[in-house]
Amino acid sequence: MGERSAVAEGLRAYRLIAGMWIRSSMTYRTSFVVTVLGNLTVTGLDFVGILLMFSQVDSLGGWSLPEVAFLYGLSVTSFGIADLALGSMDVLGARMRDGSFDTLLVRPAPVLAQVGADRFALRRLGRITQGTVVLGWALASVDVDWSASKVLLVPVMVVSGAAIFSAVFVAGASFQIYAQDAAEVQNAFTYGGTTLLQYPPTVFGKDLVRGVTFMLPLAFVNWVPATYVLGRPYPVGLPGWTAFASPLVAAVCCVLAGMAWRTGLRSYRSTGS
Amino acid sequence: MGSGRLYAAVAAGGFRRYATYRAATVAGVFTNTVFGVILVYTYLALWHEKPHLGGYDQAQAVTYVWLGQCLYATLAIQGGGAEKDLMERIRTGEIAVDLYRPADLQLWWLAGDVGRALFQMLGRGVVPFVFGAVFFPMALPTDVTPWAAFGVTLLLATVVSFALRYLAALSVFWLMDGMGVNQVLTVTGIFFSGMVLPLNAFPGTLGEVVRVLPWAAQIQMPADVLMGETDPLGAFAFQAAWAVALLAAGRLLQSAATRRVVVQGG
C-alpha cells in the first residue's frame, strides 16, 4: 500500500468513525445543544478573565484589548480545530491501561485515525465558535493598515496553527504510549500552550519566549505572524520573513509528530489485562 | 469501632486511593507548574500596569497564583472529587448500598473527600508552591501564627468545597445525569473561586458580590489569611457560616431524596 492510499484510507476511517459518534450524539438533541452551550461557556471564561483584566488597565504588556483579542481569537480558533479533530487523544493512556487499545491495533484501519476519531465530540464546535467570534471582533476593531498580504495571512495562521496544535496532540499521544498514566502532561502543552498564546509575548520572560519559538514552535501559531500584521517587532528579533514561515513550521511539526507516533506504536507492549 | 475511627478509616481510604496513581500525580504537578508560570507572568504584567490592584503588591499577586495552583486539585475547584463517584453511584443505583450502611451518608462522603484533598495537597499542591517560592518573589510570613491560621482556613475551605459539590451531586437523584451539573460546577468553581483573577481585583459591584459568595471561602480567604490581608477570625466566621449553611442544605436535600428514592438499575 502506497503512502497516498494509506492517507486516503486513514481519512476514510476517520470520517466513518466520526460520523458514527456524531449520529450517536444527535440522538438526544436537547442534551447536545446544552453541552455545546456549556462548552461555549467554559471556554469563554478565559476571555472573560482577559476582559476583567482590561476593566482595570488599558494595556497589557504594551498591547491594547483588540490586539490581545486578536491573539486570543487566533490561538483559540486554531486550538479548537485541532481539539475537534484530535482532542480525544488524551484518553489514550486510559485505553492502554484497560486494554481496549489492543482492539484498535487489530482492526484493519490506521490506528491514528481510530484514536483521533474516538468519541468524536461535535460539542467542541463551541470552542471554535467562541474563538471565531472573538477573532471577528478583533479584526473589526484592531487598528491595522490592512494590505493584501496581511489579509491573506489571517486564514493561513488559523490553518497552520491548527496543524501545529494537531502535531502537539499526536506527539503527546506518542508520549502517552510510554508514560501510560500521564495524560495531564499533554494538557500542559495543549491547554497550557493555547493559554500562553492568548497573551502578548512581551508579557513573558525572554527565555520562555525563546523556548516556544525555537524548541516547541508554538510562537508560529500566532505570535510571530501576528506581530507582522500588527506592525510590531518580534521580541526575539526574528527576521521579517519568518512571519510567513508558519506553514513550513507546521509541516515540519507534523512530520516529526508522525515519526514519534510510529516509533511509539512500534514500542507498544500490551498490559496484558 | 467508634464512629470517629470509622470516618478516619474512610478518610485514609480516600487518601490511599489517590496515592495509587503516582505517574498521574507527577503529571499533575508538572501541569500545575506550567500553568502557574504562565499566570504569574500575566499577573506581573497586569500589576505592572496597575500597582496595588485589589490591595495586593506584586509579591502578593505571585503568592496568590501559586496558592491557586496548590489548591486547584486539593479543593477540586473544577470538580472531580468525591461528588464524581457519588453521582455515578446515584446513577447506577449503587447508592442503595451506601444508604444501607450504619454510617451517616454525608459524613461518610465528607471523610473520603477530606482524605482525597489531603493527598492532592501533599502530592500535587506542595511542589508547584515550593517551585513558585524558589523562582519568584513571594510574600510569605516568617511567623508561625499566620501559617497556623492558614491551616484552619484550609480545613474550612475543604468543607465548604465539599458541601457545594455534595449539593450538586444530590441533584442527580432528580436529573439522573450529572453532565450538566458538572459543567455548572466547573464554570462557577473556576470563575467564583478566583482562579481567573483574585476576587479582590474584580471591579465594582461584581467584585462585591463575588466576595460574599461561598466560593470566596476557597482560595481568596486562605490567601488573605496567609498574607495577613484579613482578620483571621473574620475569615473563619465567614467560612464556617457557609460550611454550616451548605451542609444543612445538603442534609435537607438528602432527606428529601432518600424519602422518594427509587433505586436505579437491577
Describe the structure.
- Chain A has 273 residues and is mostly helical.
- Chain A is built from 12 helices and no strands.
- Chain A has helices at 3-25, 29-54, 65-86, 92-97, 101-106, 111-117, 125-141, 148-179, 183-197, 206-215, 223-230, 246-266.
- In chain A, helix 1 runs parallel beside helix 6.
- The longest helix of chain A is centred in the middle third of the chain and has 32 residues, at 148-179.
- Chain B is mainly alpha-helical.
- Chain B has helices spanning 3-19, 22-49, 58-74, 82-92, 95-100, 105-135, 144-170, 172-175, 179-192, 204-210, 220-226, 232-259.
- In chain B, helix 2 (22-49) packs antiparallel against helix 3 (58-74), helix 3 (58-74) packs antiparallel against helix 6 and helix 4 runs parallel beside helix 7 (144-170).
- Chain B is globular.
- The mean pLDDT of chain B is 93.
- The chains are: A mainly alpha (273), B mainly alpha (266).
- At the A-B interface, helix 2 and helix 9 of A face helix 2 and helix 9 of B.
- Chain A: This is ABC-2 type transport system permease protein.
- Chain A: The chain crosses the membrane at residues 32-57, 69-87, 152-171, 208-229, 241-261.
- Chain A: InterPro entries: ABC-2_transporter-like (IPR010390).
- Chain A: It comes from Streptomyces collinus.
- Chain A: Pfam families: ABC2_membrane_6 (PF06182).
